[in-house]
Amino acid sequence: MTETVYQHPLMAAYWRQLDTRFPQVEAVFDDVMAEALAVLTRAGLDAYLEAGRVIGKLGRGVEPLLAFLEEWPSAAQAVGESALPAVMALIQRLQKSPNGRAITPFLQTLAPVARRLQSEDQLQHYLDIALDLKARTTGSIHGHHTTFPSPGLPEFFAQAPGLLAQLSIAGLGNWVEYGIRNYRGHPERQKDYFSLQSADSRAVLQRERHGTLLIDVERKLDLYLRGLWQDHDHLVPYSTAFDEIRKPIPYYDKLGIRLPDVYDDLILPSSPFPHPNPLPEGEGEKAEPKPIEREAGGEGRTRPSPGASHHPLPQAGEGKTVISGLDRYRAALAHIVGHRRWSDAQVADNWSPFQRMAVEFFEDCRVETLLIRAYPGLRKLFLALHPKPLETACDPETTSCLRHRMAMLSRALLDPAHGYIDADLLDTVQRFHAVMAHGESSTKEIAALALNYVAKTRRQSDQFARVHFADTVVDYRDDNRQLWKFIEAGDEEDAFDEPRKIEPGEEIHGLPPRHYPEWDYASQTYRPDWVSVYEALHPHGNAADIDRLLAKHGALAKRLKKMLDLLKPQDKVRIRYQEEGSELDLDVALRALIDFKGGATPDPRINMSHRTDGRDIAVMLLLDLSESLNDKAAGSEQTILELSQEAVSLLAWAIEKLGDAFAIAGFHSNTRHDVRYLHIKGYGEAFDDDVKARLAAMQAGWSTRMGAAMRHAAHTLGARRADKKLMLILTDGRPSDVDAHDERLLVEDARQAVKELDRDNIFTYCISLDPKADEYVSDIFGRQFSVIDRVERLPEQLPQLFMALTK
Amino acid sequence: MIDKDQYKVQQEPFYQQQKNEVALYEAAYRNRLPVMVKGPTGCGKSRFVEYMAWKLGKPLITVACNEDMTASDLVGRYLLEANGTRWLDGPLTTAARIGAICYLDEIVEARQDTTVVIHPLTDHRRTLPLDKKGELIRAHPDFQLVISYNPGYQTLMKDLKQSTKQRFTAFDFDYPDAALEAQIVAQETGMDETVAAQLVKIGGVARNLKGHGLDEGISTRLLVYAATLIKDGVAPADACRMALVRPITDDADIRETLDHAVDATFA
Ligand SMILES: Nc1ncnc2c1ncn2[C@@H]1O[C@H](COP(=O)(O)OP(=O)(O)OP(=O)(O)O)[C@@H](O)[C@H]1O
Ligand SMILES: [Mg+2]
Questions:
Q1: Pick the CATH number of B4-172 from 3.40.50.720, 3.40.50.300, 3.90.1150.10, 3.10.20.70
Q2: Dihedral angle at the C-alpha atoms of A90, A95, A99, A104, nearest 10 degrees?
Q3: What is the pTM of this model?
């Protein structure tokens, strides 16, 4: 589709920017640039070429540069362009040490490593591990202060992708640590260790290799949230290995649900009410109130010391229960869902830290009680993960026992067989159940109960510096940050509206408006001539941008092409089993004859005929160009607008290949008086540079008055003479406009418009990018819609969806 | 003559009304208006029609439509016999002659040129021309045409023509709400209501995943199957896996999620 890219004058400029003479680089330059152009932003591209220039001048031959050019775009896609400075910093450190030889292996495996790590943070940990390895194994052989390079480092880089496929970053850290400590002074054995040749190297790998990585179960967890809880969000891993002081705890905020990057299977002795002991040996009572340490399995593991046998996970045998990593994630998610459903934020300022802690424990138990009501099986899971403190474990004469009391209470609130005998505890448990028996209760009501309990059980020693921590940490629970609001802390809503790209009041050029009715669901009538639609030609941009996008998806286009070929009208299709047809179908006729001769009733359908299988389809693609398209797509560097642009370009290309009649228009609105309908491609136009130039200039602003736009588009589509008429609507949100205060109004109007179109023989189909679409999209489109969960996959999915629809 | 009674629904089928569809259907029938029943698979469309036929005391002739079906399969054809040919009425013709309710199940599956033969029966003419036989049948006064289809499978290419759609009054069926569906499952199988409600809950989980890897959720029909197995002594978790989870998907992640829902529900 775009031979142009390779001769583009820009390419020459890029080449100059890279400033290199290696012929090997020249040979692959077009290819690597095609990928780079596809995944990097403009700024990212500059940085890429500049970094390439630097690497090319390190004096280490062509290899590092080749590796970098090939690996970085894909690495950037995985961890973000902003990680480049950190990568370059490592290269500089290697260059300045005797370890320059390790630069090439480092770069050669960067992309797979980045894909495994998935975030800049995690990549940084990886770089830190490498630096640590470098620092501690360079030039220290037998105390000579000579400049030996690290023997293990190049091997380590070469093995890194394989290692990370099996280990969390924490596990990798442990594995490296073991190698450094044991083989720092033995170059050959060090090499063997880091190239996974030696037996102990593989054994340590096995030992570290347990646990369930979040990225491996992400889809399952997404299905879990949607299926069981009708909730969904981004799941963001945090690393559990490097925050030594305070282990991070799950939480959620605007950007998603934060979970540890790995959970180990938890192996518990199975008593009737299993009691996990997540604390490794030696972690008993703490002398000082150290911050909470979460020491279950892998997240809290300390680095192994050489020789010391490393706290191995017990084998699950008879009498053991295993809680899989996946189930631990589910427990954490369920708990968070509980808060999202049932918790209200409380003003924190009037309460002491002790009181807040108590409220958190009670509220956690309230939401878990409600969760268990929904799925009784959760009780077993929660109890398996919840510590069961011994009633006598804490001595109130010497130690602050508040946490201990709260953890016991928490256990007792969930576990009918808790077996505690403290009278206050029993009384409070009973009151809790009494309150819950009436329904869901509320954060406020349960907080009152919590405060009462704290007051009743208060002790002087609660203030002691020595705090009892053992068995008091419930590690699947989130950190409850959403439970509190603080009045002092500048409580104002952050920012009102994002700046709009298109200024309201901008001149409207072009045709006089057309007026359309709008459906008022409240009175079940149309408001006549209610909406003014202005049609105008979409502004122009640079057609080459679209060619660039198409080139970016070259591989996808190839795949699509195969599917398109299958869809293309086959000239003749045979129809068998016809009573009347153009030809005798010999097979069937013989069978019928045999039946007849045998005295059975023959099948009279012994003919066949042919039919020309023409596709006679007219398609209208209607694009919602409202403001929200300027948002970044979740989990992607690109805006929804950019992704839509790519997807639409690919779709246009595909439909053009199929030969179906095809038009594209965009719309947005700024009250009923000003709905803009932007012509991008007409049925008479080919998918040529004019059209591409308009697509390239796609901009987003204002609101989504969908019904009016659909009626207007139907006008054009309705006038086509085609067997089948399809209107595809690509949108990222619910119909709305600034002058429509009733949320339902424009939803209902759009629904009405769908009905009108249906009457006119137009099949409407909505492709929604709105994660909340489930709430309303079926009200409008019935079953004729798809929700794209991962917007970044839109370019791939839109054409496929179209093909499936018209198959 | 044809024995009408063989087409009568002998026993009252159990049908749990979702809203006021029974009365509405009766009104449509009083006026002999053709009826279309839309809805996802296994939500009770066929059961509803069967029940209405019983309630109205009319014979019911059901035809399951498929792609290979031709107009003759509906209308009738000449058969070869040792000594000549013999005309055999198709089900639609039979229904029109004896005054039955003719139920064309999954009508979209039939080719469009097949579908048009029903047109003259559905408007004021109420006739059926048998071109090959040179006969014009006037439908019996009791005759009524009912079609069903599942809009879920609908694509641009496989949809009813407007000119067909607009000959029918329509009911839009969906899976009943949880309480009602539990009642249906309980009634239908004699299962106790708590277990029925648990099954319905699992059905709901699958329906939430529609569009996220599942094309259709778990139907009421499958819930009834699961309850039947449990009634027969199969352990609930096994019955659910066998009747609810395995049939609807081969996607391992979805399967695992549904299995987990089963375990979390039947604690
Ligand atoms: N409202 C209802 N009352 C009684 N039983 C019901 C009802 N809804 C569903 N069922 C149960 O569900 C089963 C499936 O219903 P039915 O066969 O009518 O589905 P359908 O909608 O016709 O499905 P399909 O489109 O696959 O043919 C019935 O056999 C019955 O057990
Ligand atoms: Mg049926």
A1: 3.40.50.300
A2: 70
A3: 0.63
